[in-house]
Design goal:
Helix content is 79%, strand content 0%. The chain is mainly alpha-helical. It folds into two domains: 151 residues, no CATH class; 162 residues, no CATH class.
Length: 339
Amino acid sequence: MTKFKTFLQRKGIDMSWKAYFVDALGAMALGLFASLLIGTIFQTLGDKTGFEAFATIAKYAKAATGAAIAVAIAYKLRCEGLVLFSAIAVGIAGNELGGPMGAYAAVIVAIELGKMVYKETQVDILVTPAVVIISGVLVAYAVGAPIQRVMTALGTFIENATQMQPFLMGIVVSVVIGMVLTLPISSAAICLAIGLGGLAGGAATAGCCAQMIGFAVLSFRENRWGGLVAQGLGTSMLQMGNIVKNPRIWIPVLLVAAITGPISTCVFHLENIPIGSGMGTCGLVGPIGIYTAMPEGGANMWIGMALVCFILPAVLSWLFGLVFRKIGWIKDGDLKIDC
């Protein structure tokens, strides 16, 4: 066992929860942003402007989804040379056979096996690509379709539950996905993996916006304009260290999410596409996703988007912040970040 652990260390293989479910999942989200997400944005632009070049860009960007996931994960898990290059084929196969999560599973298995054999033989240029591609494609064939079915069923269940109980599920989805956004896990990757769209996607967007805009405004006293931009358009994950130190700073934005979620589902009936539902105001992807999902939404959509994504999170978090500072649950410096 000791020899095997030494071998894994020498090969740069870290079989840990953090490596596979934090680092790799986060990298998968980045791969999705660099392909499917940007492709979806250009597709929307093409549909609205009639500019054919946008549609062409969207076509090729979306086609690169599996490859982008593979490269992102391989890079994050410190793959090099032939392992990284060979993983591209695995990502394509995994995405074709099991969607993003199929690619995720196939790529992780393939690159870890590839690391084990990399530079261990005299014919490495043949052995490494063969091990990576064969193992990855086999995993994609074996688990890709079942994973996709499970993810689709879960997403469908949540969407149906939100349709039947928009108030309750508006609260649950908004709060839970918002928390995932701030935790060191990729909410975007999870929402896309389960295909969380429709009303549930709108509630998820509300929760993410509550976290990002909420923390940006709540911590303005400590972080000023730099923090406002870093959290409001970047990520609320910057507050994770402060949450560990004082978990009560999380309560105001969770309350905001519990309010804006059902407003999204019951009042404005906001919808989103899966790639945008877990993004919030990061790069304004969440609002763009709402517009993509509801192109004929009209004034109701625009008013709802403004209130749910920006105005209510800002106003309510500011009010809750005053109360929590007054009772001493939040003290000066509790929300300070490096930005």
